[in-house]
Each structure stands twice: as C-alpha cells, then as structure tokens.
Design goal:
Layout (H helix, E strand, L loop, with lengths): L1 H7 L2 H17 L1 H40 L2 H30 L7 H16 L3 H7 L3 H9 L4 H7 L2 H18 L2 H24 L3 H14 L3 H6 L1 H26 L3 H7 L1 H10 L6 H11 L4 H14 L2 H17 L6 H18 L4 H5 L3 H4 L6 H35 L6 H7 L1
C-alpha cells in the first residue's frame, strides 16, 4: 500500500499525467470537455480545505510570533522582499517585452488575426467593456480587504477578506499573551494539523486531477488567436522561467542543500501550482516542502506562505508588465522613461489588486497600466482572455516559488546539517 501511495506522488507519474492531459486537450477536445467536471470537482475539493488551512496557519503563525516578540523582524524582511521582488518582476517583463518586440514583430497572418480581433473589440461598446474600463482597481482592492461579514466572506470564498480577518485575529491573540490565548492557539494548531492531513489524502488523486484540468485548459484555448499571440506567450514563459530560476537559486542558497536536491524538494508545489493554476490550492504542498523537506521553522512558514499568496504575486505583475508592452507596441506607441516608470508602478499595483478579483475582473486590472498611457483596456482584456489558460499555470508557479523564497529569506537560517535535508528529500 505504501508503495502505491508513493507511486501516485512520484514526479514522473505526475509529469506523465500532465502530458496525457495536454494531448487529450489538443487532439480530442470532446473527451477533454467530458473530463472537465472531474477536474473542477478535484479543484473544488482542494479549495474546500485550503481556506481552513489558510486561516489556521495565519492565526497560529502570527499569534506565536507576537507572543515570542520576533514578529517585527520577520515582517520587516517580508516587506523588503516584497517591494524588491515585485519591482524586479515588472522590470523583467518590460525589458524582455521591449527586447523581444513582442507586439511589433508579428507575422502577416498573426497581424490579420489580431487586426480582426482588435476591430471587433473597438467596435464593441457593450456595457461589459465599459465596466471593464471603469473598474477602480485600488478601490476594489481596499473594499475586498475589509469584510463587513466574515461569515459571508467565508461563504463567498473572499480570500483577501478572510486573510485580513485572520491577521487581525492572530495579532490580537498574540498580543494578549494570556493562558487562554495559548490554549486557543493550541486548538487552532489541532485544526490546522487535521486540515493538512485531509489535504495530504486528497493529494493521492493529484495525477488524475491534473490530467483532467490540463485537458480542459488546453481544449478551451482559441487556437487562431493563440497562434497569433504565440510570441507573447513565449516571452511570458521565458520571463517566468527566469524568475523561477532566481527563486530556486535563492532557496538553494538559504537551505544549504544542493541545487538538484532543492528542486526535488520543491517538485510537489511546482506540479500542484502548474496543474491547478491556483496559488491557494498550492499552500499545503508548499508548507510541506518547506517544513518537511527543507526544515524551515513552522511558525514562520505557516505565517508567510498564506500571507504571501495574496500580497506577493510577481507572476501577475510580470504578466501585466509584458502584456502592457505588447499592447503599446501593437498600437505603435513609443514609451519614454517616464512612461516606462508609470508602467512599472501600474503593473505592481495591478498585480496586487488582481489577487482579490476573480476572472475577467482580475484581468481588467491591466487598466491601471494602460489608462495612464491612453491605451484601450477592452482590447487588452479580450486578447488576454484567449491566452490566460495557457500562461496562468506557469505564472502560478512563479507566485508559489516566490513565496517559498520569501519564507526562507525571512527565516534567514541555513540548515546546519545538510544530511538531514538529504534524508527528508
């Protein structure tokens, strides 16, 4: 039995399931759409357990850090990493977008396809596009931050509101420091362990779930628009791989394991993020990799990983930066230094704001990049919808590994005995 469960979590089995799902999506879309409900159910099963894990991890982590008096040091390091990380992600996106000329080096067929799409978008003055254009990104972010009713936020799955409530509760329990707060934190820890155990059971269905999810994601992409935007997709993947390499190097340096051993330790959060395209669904796998494989302090990882999945989305910042460059080049808009600075800052705030907004509303946050430059938002959103199922998985991987790196950066400790890490891996 143990051999079977180990086989189900083998990186090779997971990789093969991803390949099979991709082939089904490309060559047999009908079967892919048949499998879509099973993939959706699996994702819902993960999400059902993720919110309780997020709440209990944040409350317990913050509470114990404030009781110990070390919260200030850790949170300062998180803020420093966050600012530098998001600025670097925006800079890489804009730089590669300009160097690769993602919007100005299109083939003739791609220009024809995009020309038709853009003409259709510009002539469409429906209420939906107007709402997209007028979406106040910062207001949505702030409004989503504070729940008027925490129970309603739990029902609706408002991750940002739940996060804010959990932070407030964790800090309050930590500052009280009474015997009753210690008891309450012990109870929270018990719930956290129970939810984490349940998610570990669900992980045994990961190969099947990933196969269904990949099949449906590949099948729903419009191939004509996708091939027309293949240059943009290629540069998004190149930019994402650069960031992934940087994060794994940082994790390797802080963990004191070899680079290959670091990659081995991170394989489960990598595949969960790639398959589900959900940062929150990847939280348990990331916590397991850090705590069990790389031996990061539990209180720190329990705090920073759930917190970072909401406030540290470098993948989204990268996406908006390079997509903004793409739209500017399509419209032959030359960007000077001041406009590039506006684009970097806009991409940073758009990325953070999109974490609290679902679906098309999240993509519409690109308005914070394009409106100051006088570029059309509705065109950008329509084009991004076409490629979002393809680029979202790799951008989720960027977000997850970034927060793993931020956790080790904040912990700022190396494992003294590398052999202990080797044994866990």
């Amino acid at each position: 039995m143990k051999n079977i469960t180990s086989l189900l979590l083998s990186p090779w089995i997971i990789f093969i399931s991803v390949i099979i799902g991709s082939f089904i999506g490309i060559f047999n879309p009908d079967v892919a759409y048949t499998l879509k409900p099973f993939g959706s159910i699996y994702l819902q099963l993960l999400q059902m357990l993720v919110l309780p894990v997020l709440m209990t991890a944040i409350i317990s982590g913050l509470g114990r850090l404030f009781i110990s008096g070390s919260a200030k040091d850790y949170l300062f390091k998180v803020l420093l990493f966050l600012i530098m990380n998001l600025l670097i992600a925006a800079a890489i996106g804009i730089s590669l977008g300009h160097l690769g000329k993602v919007g100005s080096s299109l083939g003739s067929q791609a220009q024809i396809t995009l020309g038709k799409t853009i003409s259709s978008a510009e002539s469409n003055t429906s209420n939906d596009s107007q709402n997209i254009n007028n979406t106040p990104g910062i207001y949505i972010f702030l409004q989503a931050l504070v729940p008027s009713n925490i129970f309603q936020a739990l029902v609706n799955g408002d991750n940002l509101a739940i996060l804010f409530f959990s932070i407030m509760l964790g800090i309050s329990m930590g500052l009280l420091g009474s015997s009753s707060s210690h008891t309450a934190l012990d109870v929270v820890d018990a719930f956290y362990s129970a939810f984490l155990a349940a998610i570990n059971w669900v992980m045994y269905l990961l190969p099947f779930g990933l196969c269904c999810l990949f099949a449906s994601q590949i099948a729903q992409v419009g191939l004509d628009v996708f091939w027309a935007m293949s240059t943009l997709v290629l540069y998004i993947y190149c930019s994402a791989l650069i960031l992934i390499f940087i994060y794994t190097l940082l994790i390797y340096y802080k963990s004191n394991a070899t680079y290959l051993q670091t990659l081995s330790a991170l394989r489960q959060p990598f595949f969960v993020a790639l398959g589900t395209a959900s940062s929150f669904a990847s939280i348990p796998a990331a916590l397991n990799a850090l705590q069990e494989k790389l031996e990061v302090n539990r209180d720190i990882s329990d705090l920073i990983i759930p917190l970072g999945m909401t406030i540290n989305p470098p993948g989204s910042v990268l996406y908006f930066a390079i997509a903004g460059t793409f739209i500017a080049q399509i419209y032959n808009v030359s960007l000077d230094f001041s406009q590039l600075t506006i684009m970097v800052i806009g991409a940073l705030f758009a990325g953070i704001s999109s974490a609290s907004a679902p679906g098309i509303v999240g993509l519409s946050m690109i308005s914070m990049v394009l409106i100051p430059l006088g570029l059309p938002v509705e065109v950008a959103v329509i084009l991004l919808i076409a490629i979002d199922p393809i680029v979202d998985p790799i951008l989720t991987v960027v977000n997850v590994l970034s927060n793993c790196a931020m956790t080790l950066f904040a912990a700022d400790t190396k494992t003294s005995d590398s052999e202990a890490v080797l044994d866990n891996i």
